[in-house]
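Continued from yesterday's entry.
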Amino acid sequence: MMSSVTTVMSSVTTEPDVGITQYLNQENPGFSGRLKERFSDFNVIEIDPQGNLVSLIPPPKSAEELAKEALVPRSECEYGRLPPEEQDVISEQDYTQLQTIGKAEDKKPKMDIVVNNLDKISRKILHGIIKRQELKAETITNEANDKIIRVVVSDGPKNKNQVVGVRGRSKEEKFLHFNLYKENQTTSECISGIARGCGTKDRYFTTAGNKDKRGRTVQRVAVSQIKPETVEKSAKKLRGVVAVGNYSYHPQGLRLGDLKGNRFQIVVKDIDIDDAKICPIMDHFSQHGFINYFGMQRFGTSNISTHKIGLAILRKDFDAAIDLILAPRENQFTDLRSTLLKYAAHQDAKAAFNSLSYRFKNSIEGKLLYGLQSCHSNDKINALKKVPVGIRQMYGHAYQSYIWNNVVSRRIQDHGMQVLEGDLVEDKDNITHRLNVKHLEKPELHTIHDVYIPLPGYEAKLPNNKTTEYMMDLLKVDGLDLQSFRNLTREYDLPGDYRAMLTKASDVSWRTVQYSSNEDDLVHSQLEIVARHDAPDQPMRKLGDEAGSLRALVVEISLSSSCYATMALREIMRVKTDLRSMKNQEPEEEDEIENPEDLVAEENQDGAENGDNKMDDLKRTIELVGETEPEIG
């Protein structure tokens, strides 16, 4: 292993480092502005697979109404509506009597059901029927030596303050879907809090993707076996601004990527350009779109980009991958950085792990140190497996993204917006759950927006033109070929995928607003819109200040789930989006690339927790901006 890594990595990954070098609009002079000055400057609304904006309004029914609807049809339905497998384990007479338990006022109700002739599977089905009635059951033997299930009224939760969940209606309506609104919190933080209040674990909650922390976001969430009013009560107990609504039942939960895209409302404050110059910029953006680069958040912000770790893994150099993950960085909490410096010097994983505070033992670095101390010194593969599988997959995907960005930049540099013979376009005659492509023969019948560029992989179909040469040359420099992406370990096995070279935003609109202070909130939140819906006679809050000396650009765009809003803003403002470049946020000048070693973080991360240093301000510009990372292979 590289024991020479004993100094702090202080430089950062720049756009050219990951292949982001080109712009579409060559006439755009660019302009400066302040991005994500406040969390209210960044608003993200998920777009569901049907193309509808996810909203808290109008709730079709209250949580209490839906809960009654959810439980009554299945618990008090007619016997004839039960599935055949349930009718086989309980008679109509017993089922009718079961529904009366808990409603008698004169005595403590109970009921015995003889189950001598039921096997274990049948008894399990019967227990499910009883549990749907919110009753308690136990299997015992009575005085006549009959095996019976005794049903009594449930005592409820032992902790009266705990909000508990229940099973859903049926297999067809097992999952409760609801919409989650949050401000300045991560998706995982909100879901963890709701799960605790529901008396369950956050792993039972699923989403179509995480949303930005520093922003106001709305997204769908799914959970099984939980009442809507349970979710609502739990959400109200959370700190910060969180709201839930629009409950419905579905047969399935949500998976990563179960969305059409996101609607963005982005405020760029303190701009130095007038409307007359913004207009042609936005017109070009609306008509032509932007280069569909993988954004900087795909690669991280430090000098050790995630794609470098992915390259080491693809080379099967697991020692190098581990060293890169554990390399000390300038932009780290002081105690974590101190531990990693000691590990780099002494290579003692056990001592390093034990010296970590509790808060960092579950970090990526902490998990990897634990793996190193738990596994044999030569077993780096299993040590690396202590890192969550999603993170390990991300490293390989980041390298694919790095190659894709560089190939596209070279292609645009050499051929501009020209469609080439042998390019890949969608094969509309072979539509499956995955995108299928074919080689085009008549470039004049297509536009550049039809062209797909492959992400490298052992099954990827390659263009029959210079584009393939660009890719193979890049892989050769790194000592790889397409077969290098084949791996017996599933998370490192990358067959390849395809991505549109250019993309367009839809429903593009923009306006400028005069305002007085950079603390001003210049966009109505979804909660304000809900309040207006409930009280239409109440006026909405006035946005901005006509007498203010500052100007802001408010951009509203819709992007597909695989696109990056930061790359859209890059095209509009002609600014780079890496951490170093955002320090000054000046328009890009052609052929001028600064030395990435020039940027040294001004303060350590300890102060950043309170948002009181410049490094935190810079990081806001390149946080994950509400996009859902595409699952690429």
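--- second protein ---
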Amino acid sequence: MKTYRSDIDGLRCIAVLAVLIAHAGGPLSGGHLGVDIFFVISGFLIGGILLREIQNKSFTFLNFYHRRAKRILPAVIVVSFLTVIFGILILPANELKELLLSVISANMFSANIYYWLTQDYFSPDASLVPFLHTWSLGIEEQFYFIYPIILMVLVKINWKAAFIFLLLATTTSLFSGYFVDSQTSFYLLPFRAWELLIGAMCAMWMHHNPTTPKSSVATHLGLALIVVSLIFLGKDANETPILIIFPTIGTGLILLFGDAKTSPKILSTKVFLYFGTISYSLYLVHQPVFAYTNMIWINKPTFVEMLPAFIASITLAHFSWKFVETPFRHSKTKAGPFILRSISVTLASVLCFFMLMNAPQWRESPQELALSDPLREHCHLGPRSNREQTGMHNTQCLLGNETKPDIALIGDSHSATLFTPLKTTAQQNEWSLVMETYSGCMPYFDTKPSDMKEDCKIHNEIQISKLLDIKPRVIVLFPRSRISARTPERLEHLNNSVQALLATGAHIVFVLPVHEPGFNVTPTQWKRSGLNLPTPYALAFDKKHIEFGKAVKNGLPNDERITFIDPTEEFCSETECTIVDRESGISLFYDDDHLSIKGGMILGKNIEPILKEILNDEK
């Protein structure tokens, strides 16, 4: 009969609060390592149960998975249901489909595989993914589909040989992470199993050595390793798997050498025991609450601003633990019916997903006008683009005489926001036009920064050669030039590049930096509208925009063939800059820094008279 250990609930408290603080943007760079603490605890507790039942021949797969289902699924199903219901209120169709896919994968214990294929855990947008945290449940349950089978074989041999086998498996799993990319080693079981195996080895050792001396020194050292890891080990810990050994070994020391007398007393205090008790429910509910809070917030919320979401998560977790987790965990429901009901819920989720996939576009709204320009697919290049089918080689990006066009639009993704406005203007005025931009590439043609990507260098060399050949009358350029204004070196690169463009004989229309809201305007506006929350039409004017614009203008050649257009004159007053069109209510940005089609059309109206003046004068 196993004895309750309060220090394990204390460890759970540390693990779950570390994760919450990290996800709320708090001061724990290694807070995500709380999951690794959970893995070791799980391996210790479940590994110990399996070992005892297999040795006394009371183990059956049906009963084991029945207990796991009662422990895991009820809270997962309830949180899944509430998360989807809230998602229906605020998410556009594409994001709702992604949510349903993630919910299905979570209920099928394969979320780690789903996110391995779709989501970087450490990317900025990870805070907007409601079910991202369920990747860890996938790891655990996949482990427990395999480990009982291995253990049934191991108990038939000498326990010391079995222990050595587990030690070798742990070492292999740990170091195999160095032979794959960080995304793979983070999400997939073969490269995470070692953490659960550390706990399982502790359980095996204690099972065969019940009189192992307890040590206050060892447990306090273990707690110190955990605390130091949570404070100082950041994202690098997952890119260097050996670093994760510190919190996992620290947890193992407490599990192996701790008891009521030797474990740190703080682990058994009432606060620690409470959070340890609700830790599973708290872990489950926090990510959807945090993600939805991040979605509807104007700009990214600070840690202090996330405190209401923190408190809401604790409140919801308490109710989940009391009314969902505990009753099901102690219910006498038979295994077969319970598992069948769980499968039915999962199949119902799958059915809902496919119904939504084939449903009419019931969520479309005027906000669709705020999305990025559809011409990007044809005219905006990237590392994987087929140059023979995009840009200047695609008929969607050409208008009229392509061998000697009136206008050429070049630059990065900011220039790409002018595709539709320029094409519309060119059609109305019967001007010929070519358009070709490249993702993330400043138009540096003459000299190249040392940190410039190789694919950008190749693209720019091809493009300047093409421009020298076709000699457009006007080159329109709208790069994210605030990047070039940050250092004198980059300004010099931009200056030399404009000189190279002038050598084509073209007149340069240079669009200066646009104000950048700093948050995803269109998605945020959509989600806030679902809750009847207003989105501000404008944000306070940042004087840096003027400084960037002046720096760019002063850094470029003083040549009458260069005309500058300043977007702040259209979008900004002395005190604020517009982010949502006041008349239509449509966002002027489709993300945190790119103009939407609506924003591009407004800016395009300011470019049209300049083009008329230049092109008509030349005629």
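The CA atoms of residues 413 and 439 lie 5 Å apart. The first strand starts at residue 380 and ends at 381. Will compare against the first tomorrow.
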